[in-house]
Amino acid sequence: MRIDCWAIMPDHLHVILAITGAHIGAPLHEIIKWYKTQTTNDYIRQVKQGVLPPFQTRIWQRGYYDHVIRNDTDLTEIRRYILENPIQTHRNAK
């Protein structure tokens, strides 16, 4: 598995994971759970050190949304959305 494209947004993130070869290792939901756990623990550690302010609600939403990309057209459109989403969000914030 490799990361094909990604964008970190103020309240979520977008990632295209390219699965290469036969499936080995943990299923996707376990990888997502691990990532959320690691980043939450890191955040809490930084709050305790006074580096970051406390967060009053959940850091992560429950679950995640996935979409199987089935062709090159779909891949191109989703990559474009991911790469343009931070720019569009910044423009809308002004």
Automatic annotation (TrEMBL):
One of its GO terms (molecular function) is transposase activity. One of its GO terms (biological process) is DNA transposition. Residues 1-85 form the Transposase IS200-like domain. Gene3D superfamilies: Transposase IS200-like (3.30.70.1290). Pfam families: Y1_Tnp. SUPFAM superfamilies: Transposase IS200-like. This is Transposase. It comes from Candidatus Intestinimonas pullistercoris.
